Amino acid sequence: MHLEAEQRGLKDLRYVVVSHPIGGLHADAMVGKAQAVTSELIEAFTKPYESSNGARANGAGGGGAVSDLGRESVMVDVPADEQALRREFARRTWSDGLPVIAPTEERVEATLEYCDRDPLEVLGVIAPRRGEATVQATAVCAVMAGCEPRMFPALVAAVQGIGREEFNVSGVNATTHPNTVMMLLNGPIAREIGAHGGMGCFGPTFETNATLGRALRLVQLNIGGATPGLGDRATQGTPAKFTFCVSENEAESPWAPFQTTRGFSAEDSTVTVYACEGPHNIEDHGSNTGLGIMQTVVGSMGQAGSNNILARGDTLLALTP
Q1: SS3 state of residue 56
Q2: What local confidence, expressed as pLDDT, does residue 72 receive?
Q3: What is the pTM of this model?
Q4: Is the per-residue pLDDT at 65 higher than 80?
Q5: DSSP string, 174-216
Q6: Pairing between strand 180-186 and 245-247?
Q7: Boundaries of every domain in the chain
């Protein structure tokens, strides 16, 4: 919250803190907590002041992206030794802690050859830092993650997706819940770049899945400022934040591919971005009918402790052939 407020020109934004606990309280207790901060809220909303950078902190001004990340090339000398490179990028919080490929000018240029856009075109504004994800900055993240240049168009589409206001990537990164962004590839692009949707698709060893999902995380980290403990407020995090990318197994599916439910044809190449938790397995060794299996599935979607009990969001269900 503090990071995004600062990037919106509201560095001195006032905060009113309501003491915990909140959830599960009786109505009378909730009223008491609200009344205890009423005077503070009134003062915070009505007392005008100038923020340290001159923007009116009571609502006048402060909108729009202010970060120029990606608009200027930042050239630094990097160690030739792989371990030293890993340590240096981790120290600067430029990486996810894993080894990275040095994003040299030559490697970035090779990646940009697979995209016919201006390198300084902004694909989206990524919260919480509200950094401008230019094509060039996105290519840097792709190289660091180990993506082959031919994978770059899929990453460009994903960054455009999370940069849209309706996606609310700020909510994904600012929540204390262990959320992440999943990429789902459909159509010819999935086959052309080798995305995997078969056995083990949510796991390791599949290069396209691993590197593309990782690149999208590096975009959020380096451009969006989603550093754990700062811009990323997940209390415990999730391994799915490292990478989460699959394709649909269209060849073995008895249904029309997913993109056809969103107005595209089965021949269209699409990338879907989906804010979610990591995979949750559904176990059923007792049902012998389709209805019985689906009852187990539905029960798992709405089990106690699930966010669906509170938020009632969409659920992505992956079934084996």
Answers
A1: strand
A2: 57
A3: 0.84
A4: no
A5: HSSS--EEEEEEESHHHHHTT---STTTTSSS-HHHHHHHHHH
A6: parallel
A7: 2-46, 82-279, 281-321
